[in-house]
Design goal:
Layout (H helix, E strand, L loop, with lengths): L1 E7 L4 E8 L1 H18 L12 H7 L1 H24 L8 E7 L4 E8 L5 E2 L6 E9 L1 H13 L2 H6 L3 H37 L1 E2 L4 H17 L9 H35 L6 H14 L4 H6 L3 H23 L1 E9 L2
Parallel strand pairs: 6-8
Antiparallel strand pairs: 1-2, 2-4, 3-4, 5-7
Length: about 325
Amino acid sequence: MVKTELKVLEGCRRQLRIEVEPETVKKTYQEVIRGAGKAAQIPGFRPGKAPREIIKERYRDVISKEVVGKLIPETYQKALEAQGLKPVSEPEITEVELTEERLAYTAAFDIAPEVELESYSGLSLEKKELQITEEEVNRVLEEVLTHNPKLQIEARDLRARENMKNSLRQRLEYQAQAMAGQEEDDRLVEQLLSRSKFAAPESLVNERTIELVRRELGNTPDLKTKNEAEQKKIASELFEKIKPRAEKEVRASFVLAEVAKREKVEVSEEDADKRIEILAKMAGKEKEEFAAGINAEQREELKGQIRIERTLTLLKKRSLLIKKPVIIRA
């Protein structure tokens, strides 16, 4: 049993003060001390025969660390269940108090926000009808040929040149459609966010911001030429610049999850297997080999991605379409 005291902090933040019953702490302490005694090598004593008090004194920090490592994860989960809470972030553990008969600590974490969302019917969607011009295809082809002397020779044959153009046209159409599809998704999300009201969990926003900052820094070739102070300044400035984008992405994930819940959008294990098979082919690997590298958490994330994709597809089908021809010229 654990005693818990819940505090509702600002936004999605929650705090639990957790106290473990003395009997559980005492029992765990004794088990850890016995284990330490069996493995201890203390001069003057045979293995496993050193007095308990000497073991406690010599390995005090190690014993305390192991007791905390055993009890906090277990009791934290029990406290969450008792309060009916489902965190969306890892806990921040502070104010740990430990004796041989008492363990108390504070766990702070974020929970999912309650999304207030108006009706999401009547969304509008600008559908672009893409047209790739002959001039654009020729421009791209000439650019490709400029950097590839071998293709220049092949392109002297009219049939080969026409095949190159057809291939380029297909690629340009695919790229344009992908960009248009992303713009459609963004447009729907913008409308959903404008109709919703809720705060994004700060911990998730920070995590996403850090991910985006690392990606941006990885694409900064001259970063290594900077000293440590300059690198920290660049990272700090990027963090502040990118954070609004990260917050929007986090809010988008929750508002889409809310629509998916209302619409009962489901993703089966079979759906996940099919997606893994596609990803394996794209990576040039066998499905079994690729799947072996995906853990349970990553599999759930994959199912979440499929669920969001299906939700966006559903919203697109119900949206008011506004067709707009777009001619891509050179």
